[in-house]
Amino acid sequence: MGSGRVKEEDTVSESTYETDETESEAKEEEEEEERKTKKKESLKWLEELPDVPMGKLPPHLEFQRTRVECRADAPIHTDTLQYSGAYASSGYDNSLRLDNFCDNFRVEVIRLTEEDMEFDMIGIDPAFANAFRRILISELPTMAIEKVLIANNTSVVQDEVLSHRLGLIPIKVDPRLFEFADNNTPNEKNTIVFKLHVSCEKDKPRTAVKSNDLKWLPHGSEFHLGSEDLKSGSSSKPRTYTSFACSQDKLPEFSNNPISTMENIIISKLGPGQEIELEAHAVKGLGKTHAKWSPVATAWYRMLPEVVLLQEVEDEDAEELKNKCPVNVFDIEDLGNGRKRATVAQPRACTLCRECIRGGQEWEDRVSLRRVKDHFIFTIESTGALPPEKLFTEAVKILEDKCERVIAELS
Ligand code: SF4
């Protein structure tokens, strides 16, 4: 009996607990709902924000966002990337948007020759400009001399120094026509062979050995691989250091366009009785492996300079300002009656030496030196393998490939 009563009491208390639990759960749910409604109301202002961009930044913030200001002691506002909400309180959307980029991005070619080009890249982040610079220097393939077989060298230049000098001679050939060399025997698709055989006769003046003396061997190496083939008296053609299936000058891409090196580069000097005889084998490679494969002598950029006169600079001060600048950024305008005024004639030439703002606070108050953060003056100097404009388009393709690889990895 006793145990039955206890059981009954237990049943009663369990149902009481269940009712309490249900009530508290309902209360919690209610509270949660209330919290959610309050939160929604508190964020209503966000939903009501008009579409971005909502407006322009005040001039001083726009100036900080788009310009680096170069003061006499140090530059300020140098950061180029601010987080998307940096100007949210001013109603300006600072986030990166593809449509904005497409609208603003421009490339303007300023100078183009066979060897170099200067162009403006506008509306781009420094990270991209730097990516192009790095790709140009180290990721565009070229052909360069990698192996030197020296038969005779009695010049004063040691074999290893001679080989190093040969490696750095630019080869005028489109690297896209060749494959990267693997461990197999060099063939006509991955190797270019040059021969150098120069001597200085006795009783003759010293002779300069130049890159023009490197003669292209379209049929491959002429040096025999070993003496066995010759000793055995085999009637078959002795093996050489390359195995070309056909002569390179029979290939359509080279038949009218013989391969050569950059001219007039001095390799060595020979005294009377001295001689150099060697073969140089060029293969395809990348600048990140060795600088000899870099297709550019230089690839560099600078931000567009902006020089602004904050006050009128007249008469002797104008003369003084003009004379301060070593690259003639300023000019003098004749106002008549013997009056003169300084003007900014060539802001692009400014090297940011800051000479014009030295000499006291008064000069800092007169001249403002700035750099435009998203405008880059890019210069490419080719070594001769490919014209500079081709180098840039190849660099764009490589960056595109890299982006595609990242997208493929992420998706
Ligand atoms: S910073 Fe130097 S180069 Fe530029 S305007 Fe001034 S003086 Fe000329």
UniProtKB/TrEMBL annotation:
The keyword Transcription applies. The keyword Ion transport does not apply. Its main location: nucleus. Residues 1-42 are annotated as: Disordered. CDD domains: RNAP_I_II_AC40. It is found in: Nucleus. GO terms for biological process: DNA-templated transcription. Keywords: DNA-directed RNA polymerase, Nucleus, Transcription. InterPro entries: DNA-dir_RNA_pol_30-40kDasu_CS, DNA-dir_RNA_pol_insert, DNA-dir_RNA_pol_RpoA/D/Rpb3, RBP11-like, RNAP_Rpo3/Rpb3/RPAC1, RNAPI/III_AC40, RNApol_insert_sf, Rpo3/RPB3_RNA_Pol_subunit. Residues 116-409 form the DNA-directed RNA polymerase RpoA/D/Rpb3-type domain. GO terms for molecular function: DNA binding; DNA-directed RNA polymerase activity; protein dimerization activity. GO terms for cellular component: RNA polymerase I complex; RNA polymerase III complex. Residues 17-33 have a biased composition (Acidic residues). PROSITE patterns: RNA_POL_D_30KD. Residues 1-10 have a biased composition (Basic and acidic residues). Belongs to the archaeal Rpo3/eukaryotic RPB3 RNA polymerase subunit family. This is DNA-directed RNA polymerases I and III subunit RPAC1.
